[in-house]
UniProtKB/TrEMBL annotation:
<protein>
    <recommendedName>
        <fullName>AAA+ ATPase domain-containing protein</fullName>
    </recommendedName>
</protein>
<dbReference type="GO" id="GO:0003689">
    <property type="term" value="F:DNA clamp loader activity"/>
</dbReference>
<dbReference type="GO" id="GO:0006281">
    <property type="term" value="P:DNA repair"/>
</dbReference>
<keyword id="KW-0235">DNA replication</keyword>
<keyword id="KW-0067">ATP-binding</keyword>
<dbReference type="InterPro" id="IPR047854">
    <property type="entry name" value="RFC_lid"/>
</dbReference>
<dbReference type="InterPro" id="IPR003959">
    <property type="entry name" value="ATPase_AAA_core"/>
</dbReference>
<dbReference type="GO" id="GO:0016887">
    <property type="term" value="F:ATP hydrolysis activity"/>
</dbReference>
<dbReference type="GO" id="GO:0005634">
    <property type="term" value="C:nucleus"/>
</dbReference>
<dbReference type="InterPro" id="IPR003593">
    <property type="entry name" value="AAA+_ATPase"/>
</dbReference>
<dbReference type="GO" id="GO:0006261">
    <property type="term" value="P:DNA-templated DNA replication"/>
</dbReference>
<keyword id="KW-0547">Nucleotide-binding</keyword>
<dbReference type="InterPro" id="IPR013748">
    <property type="entry name" value="Rep_factorC_C"/>
</dbReference>
<comment type="similarity">
    <text>Belongs to the activator 1 small subunits family.</text>
</comment>
<dbReference type="GO" id="GO:0005524">
    <property type="term" value="F:ATP binding"/>
</dbReference>
<dbReference type="InterPro" id="IPR008921">
    <property type="entry name" value="DNA_pol3_clamp-load_cplx_C"/>
</dbReference>
<dbReference type="GO" id="GO:0003677">
    <property type="term" value="F:DNA binding"/>
</dbReference>
Length: 340
């Protein structure tokens, strides 16, 4: 990990930037994709690339690391980055991209200039159309690297001009290993359940995990509300920072359903709803908790997940009410009762 010099006291650099890997070998997870990128970096034969996958898994990071490894000291002049915050209409494709592609830049032998189009799925279709021919015309001097969340939002013609590399969510072990490194570098005091809570809320998104760790750490250090005994990042603090329904309460609710104890389940649900969470927040946590529930028998768990899925669908279709959740827990109680 290539940490930049420590920030001045009192001023905190976001850890996601401070610990952004500078080289491909430091990017965690997605081994197959990274092996391919590493091979490209070594032999210098860069095709046009599309990197796609969920947020916070290292796409932007890898594409910059690749460019840095390919171009070395010419990285600054040899790379043009355009992301969703730049206007990327048809004019930009016609003017900025073309003029960059035509520029003469001294690069290491055999290397190409690189145009990085980050968040490419937000480019308009007409801009993408304008890009297709441009990609071919300048292919002797320039390569395109596109990063996006959903590859199908890119027009087929662009997809067929590039090699597609896929990223998937990172596993808990991969995120944990990175968190432990950061904790050591930043001298974060933590409890095991605190880190578990971060993994639980991050759902495979490294950016989310690092941001939550940093927020919980600053709260633990200086937040007046934390009691004196907790300069530790523990479970309670993490859920305070992430502001998600507390999984322990949700777990109580599921356990009550398993025992077909409807009044108790309703009580837990009211507690959650009363603390201000919306039905869609709660159903998300119900799903995550049920998925990793260890004492539900397999068959019952499948039935639960099916019902939760249907309720989730209704809620996302707009019926964001307590009644839907009450309906859900009564069906879960009924299901468990018939199993007993
Ligand atoms: N695989 C990874 N290994 C190490 N750090 C990572 C990894 N993925 C993400 N990070 C951390 O998260 C931050 C954000 O990652 P990055 O910008 O690469 O995400 P992204 O995949 O481009 O997401 P988005 O789709 O939202 O643009 C990085 O600065 C880095 O600190
Ligand atoms: Mg990105």
């Amino acid at each position: 990990m290539d940490a930049k010099p420590a920030a001045k006291k009192g001023y905190q650099v976001p850890w996601i930037e401070k610990f952004r890997p500078q080289l491909l070998k430091d990017v965690v997870g997605n081994e197959e994709t990274l092996i391919r990128l590493q091979a490209i970096a070594e032999d210098g034969n860069l095709p046009n690339l599309i990197l796609c996958g969920p947020p916070g898994t290292g796409k932007t990071t890898s594409v910059h690391a690749l460019a840095r490894q390919l171009l070395g000291s010419a990285y600054k002049e040899g790379v043009l980055e355009l992301n969703a915050s730049d206007a990327r209409g048809i004019d930009v494709v016609r003017n900025r991209i073309k003029s960059f592609a035509m520029n003469k830049v001294t690069l290491p032998p055999g290397r190409h200039k690189i145009i990085i189009l980050d968040e490419a799925d937000s480019m308009t279709t007409s801009a993408q159309q304008a890009l297709r021919r441009t990609m071919e015309i300048y292919s002797n001097s320039t390569r395109f690297c596109l990063a996006c969340n959903i590859s199908t939002k890119l027009i087929e013609a662009i997809q067929s001009r590039a090699a597609i590399l896929r990223y998937s969510k990172l596993s808990h072990e991969q995120i944990l290993a990175n968190l432990l490194k950061v904790c050591e570098a930043e001298e974060v005091a933590y409890t095991d359940d605190g880190l578990e809570a971060i993994l639980f809320t991050a759902e495979g998104d490294m950016r989310h995990a690092l941001n939550n760790l940093q927020a919980a750490h600053s709260l633990a250090k200086g937040g007046g509300t934390a009691s004196a005994s907790t300069s530790l990042v523990n479970q309670k603090l993490v859920f305070q920072v992430c502001d998600q329904p507390h999984p322990t309460v949700v777990r109580e609710m599921i356990d009550a359903c398993q025992k077909s104890d409807l009044p108790l389940a309703i009580e837990s649900l009211n507690k959650l709803y009363g603390s201000g969470y919306s039905a869609s927040d709660i159903i998300g946590t119900i799903f995550k908790v049920t998925k990793v529930h260890d004492s539900l028998p397999e068959g019952e768990k499948l039935g639960y997940l099916r019902e939760i899925g249907f309720t989730h669908m209704r809620i996302s279709n707009g019926v964001n009410t307590l009644l839907q959740l009450l309906g859900l827990i009564s069906r879960l109680c009924q299901m468990s009762e018939s199993k007993q």
